[in-house]
Amino acid sequence: MRFYDREKERTLMEQLKRTPPSFLVITGRRRVGKTELIREFCRDKKSLYYYVDQNKSIDIMMEEFGRYTATILDMPGYVKIETPEALLEFLFSYEQPVIVVFDEFQRFLKIHPSFISQVQRFWDMKSKTSGVFFIISGSSVGMIRKIFLEGESPLFKRADNILTLRPFLPRDCAGILADLGIKDPEAQLDLYLLFGGTIYYCTFLEKYQCTNLEDALDSLVLHDLAPFRREMSDVLIEEFGREHATYHEILAAIAEGKGAQKEIADFTHLAPTSLPPYLKDLTDLLGIIEYRVPVTEYDRHSKMGRYIFSDNFFRFYARYIYRNMSLYQSGQYGLLKEKILSEWKGFSGRAFEEMVRTLLREDLASQYERIGSWWNRRGDEIDLLGLGPAGNLAVEIKNRHLLESDARSILHTLEQKIPLVKGLTGPMTLGVAARTIKGRETLIREGYFIREISDLGMGK
After folding, report:
1. Domain limits for position 429
2. Is 358 helix (H, G, I), strand (E, B) or coil?
3. Average pLDDT, whole number, for the chain?
């Protein structure tokens, strides 16, 4: 599978390479494509790629790094690296320009915390006379930001730039799936709703020749040798060890729509006061979930907030694999597949809503100051609310094909919610977005905001 996009990121990396010494930090959640970006950039360039393995001691790792360095630079017998200081001394005294990558750098906090201070000392003392381009990568977003953005950290303000790699946007994913031979619009949409914009999963769609949702379920998930059989479990066990079961339960609660902290506590039978550290890990370290507040709230820590999945596949795994592990482990894949497919339209509605909200936010960003979802304590919700000085927009999003009568009913209900939104001023436009809307031209003429997913670059 060819490398896709990331043009802005590669342009920045090329610029930093031309003006050493340079220091770049690349972060983003797992599977988002950090390593692929770095490998693509380093192709045909002199580079050293060091992977920080949390299962190895610092001594064993330095011995490995020494052998690797001698092999890559073709310097057998000339490179002797036994300590972190020796590694840094060699890198900063190397006479030629070289790219130095440390992948999963944040793991040094557990393995050998003083290495971070040592990097700072060598960078401050010796970088100006070296041709080194340091690239630090890590999937624990919160830990990486702590290392480089908190004032007390040794590496505070040492990086020239910090890139947070995001999943691919829906329109980009549609193009990638088309390149893989998946031309059917409904199949493209279902696969996006299953995997989201995580490019890693697309490589398996190509490898296993999956062309639709059922293919993906059969080959990648519901099979004794399926590559994603333990996808979420492996990540949680690797990161959290013996406590992984608690994280599993929290994710299962959120997958069931329990977004408020009290709802999660009730579902998991955990004390509400014990939840914040776990939720912070899942939000800041792994980026699997996020905390979202109503678009009308300016306090990002508002108690009106709730937790939602930011990863489509982890939500699917938490809902259907983890919650049905007895069925799964006993090999009853047919029954589980039947359950998934029978509930798919309803289950994928949240992912569809988020996808459409993302697409509309792209298109409407210049017209509204704030765009997001809204809800109140009694359970009223508006899927998308755009707020601006010249007027406001309220849109309901439906993961189905609508008749004109359906759309009118939805618009009527939406109109009744508007007075519940406090502080609104200016004119309000009402709208509906769905897979298709029969009679849309009439509704548009009447002044409603109407969008089908084909209008948004999906499902064509």
Report:
1. 350-456
2. helix
3. 92
**Three-class secondary structure of residue 290 per DSSP:** strand
- Is residue 415 situated within a structural domain? yes
Percentage helix, strand, coil for the chain under 3-state DSSP, each rounded to 5: 50, 15, 30
Nearest Cα to Cα of residue 430 among 456, 395, 455: 395
| Among 149, 93, 152, 162, CA closest to 117 | 152
The β-bridge partners of 450 are 432
Mark which of 164, 190, 205 sits at the end of a domain: 164
pLDDT digits (tens, 9 = 90+) for 41-86: 999 999 999 999 988 999 999 999 999 999 999 887 667 788 999 9
Q: How far apart are the first and last CA of the chain?
A: 23
Residue type, 127: S
Asked whether the CA dihedral 340, 342, 345, 350 is positive or negative, the reply is: negative
Q: How many other C-beta atoms can be found within 10 angstroms of the C-beta atom of residue 147?
A: 25
Domain boundary (164, 192, 227) is at: 164
DSSP state of 32: S
Question: Contact, 238 vs 302, CB < 8 A?
Answer: no
Q: How far is CA 250 from CA 76, 111, 228, 245, in A?
A: 51, 28, 20, 9
Residue 13 lies in a domain: yes
CATH number at residue 426: 3.40.1350.10
What is the reported pLDDT for 2?
Answer: 62
133 domain-assigned = yes
Q: Rounded CA gap, 258 and 267, in Å?
A: 8
- Strands 22-27 and 47-51, sheet pairing: unpaired
Are residues 58 and 52 in contact, defined by beta-carbon separation less than 8 angstroms? no
CA distance 97 to 205: 38
250 within some domain: no
Q: Where are the beta strands (DSSP E) in 149-284?
A: 161-164
* Global pTM value: 0.87
Q: Helix or strand or coil: residue 431? A: strand
CA distance 216 to 432: 30
Q: Sort residue 278 into left (φ over 0), alpha (ψ -120 to 50) or beta.
A: alpha
The pair of structure tokens assigned to 158 is 């040492």
CATH number at residue 45: 3.40.50.300
Evaluate whether 100 touches 47 at the Cβ level (below 8 Å).
Answer: yes
- What's the domain count of the chain? 2
